[in-house]
Amino acid sequence: MESMALWEKLLLGVLVVLVLLWFVPGIKTMFRERREASREEWMSVLIPLALVAAFVVLLIMLS
Fold first, then answer.
1. Are 3 and 12 spatial neighbours (Cβ–Cβ below 8 Å)?
2. Per-position pLDDT tens, the chain of length 63
3. Nearest 5 degrees, angle CA 28-CA 34-CA 36?
4. For residues 48 and 39, what is the distance between their CA atoms, to the nearest angstrom?
5. Which end of the chain, N or C, is less surrounded by CB atoms within 10 Å?
6. Domain map of the chain by residue range?
7. CA-CA distance, 61 to 63, in Å (whole number)?
8. How far is CA 9 from CA 6, 12, 14, 32, 43, in A?
């Protein structure tokens, strides 16, 4: 597989910067309006995330 040309790298960098600038207002609003989450709410996110990570590690080990 060939490496990317310089113009492709520059275009990709500009695209990344534009996407970040596009998301900044939403991220600022999210941090301003967030509320404190309870332990149960955190566990409802962390347990499925840990299960997915364990499944991916299992798939990597089996390949």
1. no
2. 788 899 999 999 999 999 999 999 998 888 888 778 788 888 999 999 999 999 999 999 998
3. 145
4. 15
5. N
6. 6-62
7. 6
8. 5, 5, 9, 34, 40
pLDDT of residue 11: 96
d(CA 23, CA 15): 12
The full DSSP string for the chain is -PPPPHHHHHHHHHHHHHHHHHHHHHHHHHHHH--PPPHHHHHHHHHHHHHHHHHHHHHHHH-
- State both tokens at 60: 């990597």
Alpha-carbon distance of 36 to 25, in angstroms, equals 21
